[in-house]
Amino acid sequence: xxxxxxxxxxxxxxxxxxxxxxxxxxxxxxxxxxxxxxxxxxxxxxxxxxxxxxxxxxxxxxxxxxxxxxxxxxxxxxxxxxxxxxxxxxxxxxxxxxxxxxxxxxxxxxxxxxxxxxxxxxxxxxxxxxxxxxxxxxxxxxxxxxxxxxxxxxxxxxxxxxxxxxxxxxxxxxxxx
Length: 177
Prior knowledge:
With 177 residues, the chain is mostly beta strands. It has one helix at residues 2-20, and strands at residues 35-36, 40-42, 49-57, 68-73, 77-79, 89-98, 110-114, 121-123, 135-137, 146-151, 159-165, 169-170. The protein folds into 2 domains: 22-114, Immunoglobulins (Immunoglobulin-like, Sandwich); 121-170, no CATH class.
């Protein structure tokens, strides 16, 4: 009877030690292609996590220091910020950090490519009293050309005007009467 009690106590202790130490490695879906202006990186959440560390790099081995970034998030997702360059491939991986400061192994790596952002319109806004208003927008990093479409419909089925420009503004020509 003593041997069975000792075995049960040893097994219970091993289970408790196993639960107290170590934390699971987050799993990411590396097959999902991400090619967006603001990519959202996601992974399966793990238990007992205080936060996650997400490493993003231009180097597939995560060794180049300029070009390698570390982000912390409490959620099982990260919306990639504007510090990264357009039309470049980035590699990423994630690990979990427990409340006891234990860190999991890094997940397997995945990659994404940062796409172009949409221009942010500056003017005109609201009611327009001018016959030929100036259309202006913020510069989009990486953009070499802009396409301007003007319509009297919100769905743009009937485009009144379509214009390509390299500038950050467009001044329509006066309409001929």
